[in-house]
Amino acid sequence: MSDRTGGDPATGGMTDVDGMSFERALAELESIVAKLESGNVPLEESISLYARGEALKARCDALLKDAEARVEKITLGADGRPSGTQPLDGD
């Protein structure tokens, strides 16, 4: 099993992280964090959950970067009126 697949707590099945929406990946990541923070998970399951969480985090990061690249900021002319758009800075 790769780190891009794993048990989906919502369905009990195997779900490919690469196909998940941001919202679904984030919800599953939050669920994993809660389980790990509870301290009531056996060691082997903790390791699997941690690996799944890393894949989910990477998916969320990629989706956020993609969304940021598509966002444009509005530029204003000397008169204060919108004059066009430009790509959003990464800063």
What does this structure look like?
This protein is α+β, with helices and mostly antiparallel strands. It is 49% helix and 12% strand. A two-stranded antiparallel ribbon has the order 1-2. Strand 1 (72-76) and strand 2 form a beta hairpin. Helix 1 packs antiparallel against helix 2 (43-70). The model is unreliable at 1-14 (pLDDT under 50).
List the helices and strands and how they pair.
Elements: H1 22-38, H2 43-70, E1 72-76, E2 82-87
Antiparallel strand pairs: 1-2
Helix pairs in contact: 1-2
Put the structure in a nutshell.
This protein has 91 residues and is an alpha+beta fold.
Question: What labels describe this entry?
Answer:
2 strands; two-stranded antiparallel ribbon; 91 residues; disordered N terminus; alpha+beta
Summarize the amount of helix as a percent range: 40-55%
E-strand count:
2
Average of the residue pLDDT scores: 81
Largest sheet: 2 strands, antiparallel
Low-confidence stretches: 1-14
Distance between the termini: 37 Å
H-E order: HHEE
| Total of helices | 2
Instruction: Tell the overall outline.
Output: elongated
Strand-pairing-aware structural class: alpha+beta
How much of the sequence is in beta strands? 5-15%
The rounded Rg comes to 19 Å
Strand arrangement within the widest β-sheet reads 1-2
